[in-house]
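Example 3.2
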Amino acid sequence: MDEYRWALLIVYDGWDERRQRRQMQQQLSALERTAFLDGYYKAFGLCAGPCRLCAECDLTRRCRHPELSRPSMESCGIDVYATCRNAGVSLEVVACPADQPRYVNLLLIE
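Structure, written as tokens:
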């Protein structure tokens, strides 16, 4: 994390369908690519939660979407709730299925 000077939090409210989660990953990948092409070669995107690009992940084969798949913040040891709180973003635990989820992606830029 010491390699990065800036962090962009991208917040999505109420997006919970598989198609919408895939769009979130595609948007993050596009932002990461734009930063890379602008000279920020260490740009690194981290998604909210597990990958949703495929209905099922075939762990016996290579990823079918390596250009879009990104690790989650949680898998990299980032405390997402604390990160959001420090940035002034409200993030609450979803306690029941009726609650609206809030997803947060992170783009790190050196």
